[in-house]
Design goal:
The structure holds three protein chains of three kinds. By secondary structure, chain B is mostly helical. Chain B is built from four helices and no strands. Chain B is globular and about 30 Å long. The mean pLDDT of chain B is about 90. By secondary structure, chain C is α/β, with parallel strands linked by helices. Chain C folds into two domains: about 240 residues, Thiolase/Chalcone synthase (Peroxisomal Thiolase, Chain A, domain 1), CATH 3.40.47; about 150 residues, Thiolase/Chalcone synthase (Peroxisomal Thiolase, Chain A, domain 1), CATH 3.40.47.10. The chains are: A alpha/beta, B mainly alpha, C alpha/beta.
């Protein structure tokens, strides 16, 4: 079993630090206090990065900065045996800067910094370099599922090497270049008002976002905040398949016995939905909601972080910030849909 | 261009090219080593500086050994620029 | 008890051939694929050598039957090797129709317990000019908007072949596909899937050519791994895929080798170069031996990372000396294929497995003078050799180092001892 001990997050919501306030923001009561998008994009509020030497910081792409910045507080907590990072966009901005050098200087003499920093594994490797961490180090770039695949790998490592600790997370940046590509491909709305009204649009596209959410995990239950009880990822364009797989997922990881009064499977106490205001994705979210008991409260979060490939890492982080309801432990289900074809379920048990 | 002026200009270019945003030209002494304990530049930075010399002064350095002789400090770079610049 | 993991199918395309047989033939005959062709849109083609696949995109389309819009060369190369691998393992029952699942019925290929773990560093970045235009914005996209990232390769294979299990893409630079092999093997050992199709791909691209050129590590002539006078690497392209299955599922199948051990570590030294003492490569090899439960003396041959750069070969040599004292026979097949980046881990795993399967060792080409500090000499002639265990090294930018250990299949063991 994979247990979460510590978390950090760099997100567009610098005020979102936990407890009642987080619950209010996510629930909508605090509609006015959530930071909104700037020029149609949810941008992270970057910290000052006091732990990163200036000579190191200047070489980093934004994605690397976010990843290393979020990792620094965690790598001081515990011995780290490995780093596993999911990223959909990697260092896209640096890559495109290098590409533009290629074109602008007709393949002449080019500065290599952008090329090196733009490689997606630069995030995990720079965390390793910054913390002198020579253990396992891997990067999962499978669009909307990279964070989930990093979690699956961490759960395997924990069972293979008892007593080890890993840093797992999802990191994505949004850059102007990437924004233009996604916009042209129909993934963003051109105008959107901030807050929960994101979910009221009956139109395609969502709103761009970015962030870094990292987790310190191990196989030890002592002092853990939560445990990951199940993860499943798959590809489908059929909402009926998504519903069928959710039923099977819950029956496997939350069997009826673990919660009283349920038939085939237990019911999560809370459902975090990756709904993003794109009306094409709505049928998938509706199909999942229909699988659950209507009494299960739903928390949506993309009006806080925007849409990006590893937004589910933000969701897991957010769930651990919400004021804990009683009684604990509590099972929390996450469903996220990326670009209508990639699906992920995560089942988390929260202890504190 | 006067040597002093060239030095100031080069320092500003180094800062911009290498994104040394917390450094000002006044922070870089003419004889401060660029690498190691000095400015703390690394091997990728040295390739970036060779590109800077090419784009700003039309200088082509192909042999890495020659690069190492040129990229010692601002003084050595300015000497080389003065002798070899094509623009 | 975790299942042992075996290789039951392989497919490969590289500068030295478009099939297992063609690659083996070239390796045996020491025929290098390094030459002067390459992607037509780069000014370096004809100027510096590359290891390019001889097929044009149109020819690759013809071979793979893929004519869909928006498909990059990277995906075409992957599809070529992927199809060979699943065919070799008996997983391909009927050819899929373009753009959709093969059929309604579930096969071993489309079952939810079959995973696909791919790896690439270039992905659709080979579409340099299209990407440049699309990043400038405008109302009309190029038709490749969803094709630039690395995941686009696996996404395409998944759709085309109707895969419904875990599918992912790993990018740890030049060790990417070694990590894909490791991830797939561990999914099986952990009981999360029953079989995994694992591998990697990269195509020659203006993007990477200029990136490596800017780092001044492209050789002006054919590369000479481990030679004192090495001048850098030759970029190559290709794809390799392997089918991994559990020991319990091997009945009646051709078994190439066992994936016996693996280890992934980070050198934590520099963003684009390895530590002079080869700490990362050392830890990767040591960890792979440990996970295989083998002493260093059990390794009969090493397919070295051996890029031909000043830095890699010095670092890897130091690490080999630290592990083995006197290293066993080793070679860099990159001297024949060029450095295929994200594909190299898989392509060289396949060569390592062919070494075991045919009991022979493939040589380096172009080597003449050892590095004075190490004195190591790679194998320079093809040689039949009794081999029980081989090691395959893959190291990448960002210090990502992975080593894999393959062991001779039990049915073949009798012939070795």
């Amino acid at each position: 079993m994979l247990y979460i001990h510590h978390t950090t997050c760099i997100s567009p919501q610098p005020r979102l630090v936990g407890g009642e306030e987080a619950s209010a923001l996510a629930g909508g009561e605090g509609r006015g206090t959530a930071a909104g998008p700037v020029n149609g994009v949810y941008k992270v509020v970057e910290p000052g990065y006091p732990g990163i030497p200036p000579n190191t910081l200047r070489r980093m792409s934004k994605a690397v900065r976010l990843g290393v910045g979020a990792a620094m507080p965690l790598i001081r907590q515990e011995r780290i045996d490995g780093i596993l990072i999911g990223t959909g966009n990697g260092g896209m901005e640096e890559s495109v800067k290098f590409l533009r050098q290629i074109v602008d200087y007709s393949e002449g003499m080019l500065a290599p910094g952008n090329f090196v920093q733009g490689i997606p594994n630069a995030i995990a490797s720079q965390i390793g370099l910054s913390g002198h961490l020579r253990g396992y180090n891997s990067t999962y770039i499978h669009r909307g599922l990279g964070f989930e695949h990093a979690l699956i790998d961490a759960s395997m490592l924990i069972s293979e090497h008892p007593g080890t600790h890993y840093l797992v997370g999802g990191v994505d940046e949004v850059s102007g270049y990437h924004y233009r590509i996604e916009l042209a491909d129909g993934w963003y709305k051109t105008t959107v008002t901030p807050g929960l009204s994101l979910y009221d649009y009956d139109s395609p596209g969502s709103i761009a976002g970015e962030g870094a959410a990292l987790f310190l995990v191990s196989g030890e239950s002592a002092d853990a905040v939560a445990a990951i009880k199940g993860i499943e990822t798959f590809h489908s364009t059929d909402q009926h398949i998504v519903a069928t797989r959710l039923r099977a997922f819950l029956a496997r990881h939350l069997p009826a016995g673990s919660q009283p009064g349920q038939q085939l499977s237990g019911s999560p106490a809370l459902y975090l939905s990756g709904e993003n205001g794109d009306n094409r994705a709505l049928p998938f979210y509706s199909a999942c909601a229909a699988v659950l008991d209507p009494a299960v409260p739903v928390v949506r979060y993309k009006h806080l972080c925007g849409e990006y490939p590893t937004a589910s890492a933000f969701a897991v982080w957010l769930a651990l910030q919400l004021a804990p309801p009683q009684p604990l432990p509590q099972h929390i289900l996450f469903y996220n849909n990326h670009k209508l074809t990639q699906h992920s379920f995560i089942l988390l048990e929260r202890f504190r | 261009m006067e040597t002093a002026q060239l030095k100031e200009r080069l320092k500003a270019q180094i800062i911009e090219f290498l994104n040394l945003s917390s450094t000002t030209p006044a922070d870089i002494a003419d004889d401060q080593p660029l690498f190691g304990e000095g400015l703390g530049l690394d091997s990728i930075d040295s390739l970036e500086l060779i590109v800077l010399l090419n784009r700003e002064y039309g200088i082509v350095i192909k042999d890495p050994k020659e690069g190492r002789k040129v990229l010692v400090d601002v003084n050595t770079m300015v000497d080389y620029i003065t002798q070899h610049r094509t623009k | 008890m975790a299942s042992r993991v075996f290789v039951t199918g392989m497919g490969v395309i590289s500068a030295i051939g478009d099939s297992l047989a063609a690659n083996r033939k070239a390796l045996v005959r020491k025929e290098s694929g390094i030459g002067y062709s390459g992607p037509a849109n780069s000014r370096y083609v004809g100027v510096i050598p590359f290891g390019s696949v001889t097929f044009s995109n149109a020819e690759l389309m013809e071979h793979t039957g893929i004519y869909d819009a928006g498909v990059s060369r990277t995906t075409l190369l992957a599809a070529h090797a992927f199809r060979q691998a699943i065919q070799d393992a008996g997983l391909l029952l009927s050819e899929a129709t373009s753009g959709g699942a093969a059929s309604g019925c579930t096969t071993l290929l489309t079952a939810t317990d079959t995973a696909l773990i791919g790896a690439t560093t270039v992905g659709g970045m080979c579409l340099t000019d299209e990407l440049y235009r699309d990043t400038n914005g405008g109302a009309q996209g190029s038709g490749y908007l969803a094709s630039y990232d690395g995941a686009s390769v696996q996404q395409y294979l998944q759709n085309r072949y109707g895969l419904s299990g875990l599918v992912t893409t790993i990018n740890t630079a030049c060790s990417s596909s070694a990590n894909a092999i490791q991830y797939g093997g561990r999914l099986i050992r952990n009981g999360l899937v029953r079989r995994a199709i694992v591998g990697g791909v990269d195509s020659l691209a203006k993007y990477t050519i200029n990136g490596f050129n800017a780092l001044q590590i492209l050789a002006p002539a054919a590369c000479k791994p481990f030679d004192e006078h090495r001048q850098g690497l030759n970029l190559g392209e290709g794809a390799g895929f392997l089918v991994l299955e559990r020991e319990e599922d091997l009945a009646g199948k051709k078994v190439y080798a066992e994936l016996r051990g693996s280890c992934n570590v980070n050198d934590a030294y520099h963003a684009s170069s390895l530590s002079p003492d080869g700490e990362g490569p050392f830890l990767a090899m040591q960890g792979a031996l440990r996970s295989a439960g083998l002493d260093a003396s059990a390794i009969g041959y090493i397919n070295a990372h051996g890029t031909g750069t000043e830095n890699n070969d010095a670092s890897e040599s130091q690490a080999m000396i630290r592990i083995f004292g006197t290293p066993p026979a080793f070679a860099s097949t990159k001297s024949s294929t060029g450095h295929t980046l994200g594909a190299s881990g898989a392509i060289e795993a396949i060569y390592s497995i062919l070494d075991l399967f045919y009991q022979e060792a493939y040589p380096s080409v172009n080597f003449s003078t050892p590095i004075p500090e190490t004195g190591l000499r790679p194998l320079t002639e093809f040689k039949p050799m009794k081999l029980e265990h081989v090691l395959s090294n893959s190291f990448g930018f960002g210090g990502n180092c992975t080593s894999l250990v393959f062991s001779v299949a039990p049915a073949r063991l009798a012939k070795v001892i």
